[in-house]
């Protein structure tokens, strides 16, 4: 068994790292709101529990070459830079899904680092090591903090890769200010090519209530990952701790309409999971192909929403092919 196969096999067991969809529904955000204007931890013990789980999950990643805390108008954004095998190539910047943070990319970093340097970001206003300091009141604010983050990097542009709600975050930035975006790769994005299914919203509601047992959150996380078990996995433990102890204070993301998608300037690669529960896959594919006539659409028929952990090598190969002609 090759090293690549070993990595793939190991990370299939942790594909729940993409259960980032756990709180993507707009209704969930409304249900768990508290009077505080910014995202915050329920108490110091909860934050400590999350940080311990974060550190444990982070240990599976390569050592970052640099750790940056970038000041933006809405808070301090934690960014890591990982040194790749082609430092002269244009770097990648990875945006995780909801409640997952940088360790969600553990399965993907080895393949992407073969292509160049990689930045990862802990989304502002989410569980992670970024620190929200001012309210994020809408799509423009989401775009503003991310634009300021990219502007602070030494490169003029990056290949932007977004997973789940990170895919929406990437598209939202491209619609507001694409200046620092060379290409867009969207990995089973939510609120972009279709609405969140009602059944998923209903199943997610118990997971959004922090006082309910851990098993309820684990159950929903397993559902988004195609039924994979989530117990005793470091990244899944980190995600559950974030769901349990962090209070999101973010507005519901605006569904991206087809006419706005058609106006995207950067080239787009859309990767859709055929068994995703975060949209209707057939509808998402049809929308992407219709709204992005110059884009590239890939469908992984057997993948769940946790496809970044299920198919890391295939994703790296598709990204290599897509970005290789656009460097």
Automatic annotation (TrEMBL):
InterPro entries: AB_hydrolase_1 (IPR000073), AB_hydrolase_fold (IPR029058), AB_hydrolase_sf (IPR050266)
Keywords: Hydrolase
Domain AB hydrolase-1 per the UniProt entry, residue ranges: 93-317
GO molecular-function terms, A-Z: hydrolase activity
Keyword Membrane carried by entry: no
Highest taxon listed in the record's lineage: Bacteria
Pfam families linked to this entry: Abhydrolase_6
Protein name: Alpha/beta fold hydrolase
